Amino acid sequence: MNRPRLVATDLDGTLLDDEGRLTARTLDVLRRVQEQGVRVVLVTARPLRWMDDLWAHVGGGQGVGIVSNGAITYDIGSHRVLDCQGIPADVGLPMVAAIRDAAPGSAIALECLGGYRHEPAYVDLHPAPPDMRVGDLADLWDEPAVKVLAQHLTLDPDDFRARVVDAVGERATPTWTIDHLMEISAVGVTKGGALAALCERLGVAAEDVVAFGDMPNDLAMLRWAGTSYAVANGHESVRAAADHVAPANTEDGVAVTLARLFGL
Predict the structure, then answer these.
(1) Per-domain residue ranges for the chain?
(2) Which DSSP letter does residue 104 get?
(3) Measured between alpha carbons, how far is 56 from 77 in angstroms, rounded to an integer?
(4) Span between the terminal Cα atoms of the chain, in Å
(5) C-alpha 229: how far from its chain's center?
(6) Architecture of the CATH domain 6-84+189-261
(7) N or C: fewer beta carbons within 10 Å in the chain?
């Protein structure tokens, strides 16, 4: 492959270790890659509110990142949203009704630019932000949701995923990263689509991009990039789709591979 001009990498399960940290080895390799003039773009399902501590490691707090599975493209240096695509209530509420019909007992949360909010039945799997709102979904959905989270803690995960995908249909783009939770974005919104749009803006061709991921929400990005790596701990569908398999996230797999690609 040609020497990449841009590195796109998922975070959880890929670049970060199992404790959600960047190891010293990974930090060193990212710094040295960027010193060669190569862009590093973090492409994550994480919401924007989780990213402040990680942006500093991308070009010293400069550059661009992609969050919420591609719904938001963010200028790190200016703290400015460059692009945002969400699901409005008039589309989302009927979609949620269809999900409830297909999977009774589903609970819903919304990630919006204006904050995180959810129904009382939704169980937070992470510490809640201080500005979280809890209430009736129709009242909470007062701006487009960059990500709709559908949760069902008792259905078989594969069954739940199938039911949600069928219920959503063409209204939105469903994907997943963990069991019992579906992540739903606006029509056509994926990590791959957001990365392609960003690279067009930057004048970087797909063949000059190397991408890393571990879960099905990374598939569109890995398929678009000129060269793709699944980490060894990744989902079997991702390992099958990627061009190559890198060592696991617990073995600094992204850093090991970048060091080899860039002769570090």
Answers:
(1) 6-84+189-261, 91-185
(2) T
(3) 9
(4) 16
(5) 16
(6) 3-Layer(aba) Sandwich (3.40)
(7) N
Q: What angle do CA 195, 45, 15 make, to 5 degrees?
A: 80
DSSP 215-257: SGGGHHHHHHSSEEEEETTS-HHHHHHSSEEEPPGGGTHHHHH
| Spatial distance between the Cα atoms of 9 and 215, rounded to a whole number of angstroms | 12
CA gap 231, 184 in Å, rounded: 24
Instruction: Tell me what pLDDT residue 88 has.
Output: 97
Tokens of 192: 């791959």
CA distances from 108 to 8, 251, 261 (A): 30, 35, 42
Q: Which residues pair with 110 in a beta bridge?
A: 117, 148
Virtual CA dihedral for 14, 19, 23, 26, nearest 10 degrees? Answer: 10
Query: What are the structure tokens assigned to 131, written together?
Result: 């500005």
Looking at the domain 91-185, which fold is it?
3.30.1240
Residue with tokens 């600094």: 252
- pLDDT for res 59: 67
pLDDT-flagged residues of the chain (< 50): none
Nearest to 190, CA basis, from 229, 221, 225, 165: 221
Which two three-digit tokens encode residue 86?
A: 């969400």
Using alpha carbons, list the distances in angstroms from residue 146 to 51, 67, 69, 164, 200.
Answer: 15, 10, 9, 18, 22
